[in-house]
Amino acid sequence: MKKYWFWISLILLIIIPLIFEFTMSQNSEHHNWWSSIPAFWVLFGFFGCALLVIFSKTIGKLFLDRKEDYYDDK
Predict the structure, then answer these.
(1) Mind listing the pLDDT tens digit of every residue in the chain (74 residues)?
(2) Closest CA to 43 of 33, 34, 30
(3) Closest CA to 17 of 56, 46, 53
(4) Which of 16, 23, 30, 72 lies at a 20 to 30 A Cα distance from 8?
(5) How far, CA to CA in Å, does 43 sit from each of 4, 38, 48?
(6) Dihedral sign from CA coordinates of 38, 39, 40, 43
(7) pTM exceeding 0.70
(8) Where are any strands of DSSP class E within 1-74?
(9) Contacts with 46 (C-beta within 8 Å, 6 or more apart), sequence order
(10) Do 4 and 28 meet the contact criterion of CB atoms below 8 Å apart?
(11) Per-residue pLDDT at 47
C-alpha cells in the first residue's frame, strides 16, 4: 500500500508543474536554446533531483555501510 501512495505522489509531482508550464503564458525572450524547449526546467529539476538521490545512496552504500559485526571482527 505504501508503494501505491509513493507512485501516486511521484506522478502528481511531475504532472502539476507540467500543467503550470503549459498554462502560464511565456512572453519572455529566450536567452538559450534549451529555454525554448517546453517543460525543460521541470524535467531538468526532477531528473537532477532523482539522479542526486540515486548517486548519494550509491556512495553511501559503498563507503559508509559496515557489517553488523564490525566491532567484533578480530
Answers:
(1) 778 898 898 889 888 888 887 787 666 677 888 777 878 888 898 899 999 999 999 999 888 887 777 777 66
(2) 34
(3) 46
(4) 23
(5) 22, 10, 8
(6) negative
(7) no
(8) none
(9) 13, 14, 17
(10) no
(11) 92
Q: Which three cell numbers, joined as nine digits, stand for 46?
A: 526532477
Task: Write down the residue that cell numbers 559508509 correspond to.
Answer: 64
Buried b (16+ CB within 10 A) or exposed e, 14-49: eeebeeeeeeeeeeeeeeeeeeeeeeeebeeebeee
The letter for the amino acid at 57 is: K
Locate cell 521541470: which residue? 42
Distance CA 52, CA 9 (A): 19
Tally the residues of the chain. Answer: 74
Residue position matching grid coordinates 555501510: 65
